[in-house]
Write a structure and sequence with these properties.
With 448 residues, the protein is of the alpha+beta class. The chain is built from 10 helices and 21 strands.
Amino acid sequence: MRRILLPVFAGLFGLLLTTSCESEMPSMDSDPVEVNKWIFTTLKSNYLFWTAKDSASLNYGIQPPEFFGGLKSGSDNIASLAKISNINSQESYDIGFEYGINNYRGDNVTYYVVYYTRKGTFADNNIRRGDNIIAVNGTSVTEQNSKTLLAEAIAEGGTVKLSYMRPPQSEPIEVDFPLMSSDNALVVNEDPVYAVTDTVMGSLRVGYIAYNRFTSEHKTQLLNALTQLKSKNINYFVLDLRYNPGGFLPIFETLGSALVKNRTTGDPFLVYKRREDIGDRQISLSNVSSIPNLGDQLAKIYIITGQYTASASEAFINALKAYWGNNLILVGEKTTAGDNNNIAIVPTADKTNQWQLTVPIGYMADKDGNSNYANGFTPTGKYLVNDINPEEVEALRPLGVTSERIYKVIIDDIRGVRALKSATITTDSYKIPSSIMSKPWANKAIAE
């Protein structure tokens, strides 16, 4: 019986979203009446699934959760109201890398390092993508404890002692990992531009960016990476979104504008299809000189996808595909296709900063109005391939090197070399909950 690889990711990050909707905030303390008025005004002005309510007939004196529940659509599982103190009450810790459960090697269950999130972790502790962790704080990893052993050690804080193997070494390596609080600047400010490489094969020049979160906070790093690849005169571009679970949509203006051929300022890249009484909005292309026109020199774009390519990532694929058509090729695994993955949200806080209201505001569509990707995206034919070959035990290669399993499929395709036989283990039955999907931006498309 074939064993399978079960991805599960570490590292919960605290993030309070206080983006403002187009509504008035209460000027008084957060008593039920004022909070409920704010809830009503915000939903009436922005809520995608709003149905007309008689304001005068509502009971503004009840508790906000009950009031909110009376306005929320019964079929909506996105909109939410939460006490901000509850959101931030649980302190969490970060170990500095994402990990999975290597469960396809018979009884020899280990964790494997997917990638490190703090680059200093790699330098200081010499842990690498593909290393197999066999023990945590002296306790061996087993099939029975693998879903909780490392997660519980991280939750306790302090330092975690890891024993790991690096193929083909036969002796374990031991290292102490100091954990960081989730509100540490090194954790919160993790650079989403994870890797940037270029490969020259005669007249073929391939640029690669691994991009793990959509955020405007690191816009400069993204622009620098795009500008660097343009200066290398690349004619093929690979955007690796396999570990990108979502994020903030405004950065689409930068990345989309860089990749669209012959861009025109003001043309739509992504359209928010909102209620008829509100009207649609859009993220437009920009022709400002700071955004390199990389797309003009490209023959094809490849996007690497995976089980945790979600929401904002799926919206970006949909939007870019409208401009590139068949010259945009997906390689990897089926995307997340989570509930309502094509709907944008805005989280906003009341003026007293006691309540957070998350509001779905519209469907995310491409320039032609197409938002029909609720089932996600699945690479086809030879392009359907997973990170790990389930027929063999092999170490994960660094992201962005030409020997890395999925990137090699792309390089071979560009060179015209026959690709390896497709092998995928991506089915719903193989998926398990992962902490990467618990990050505040995960499985979300946030319209600031």
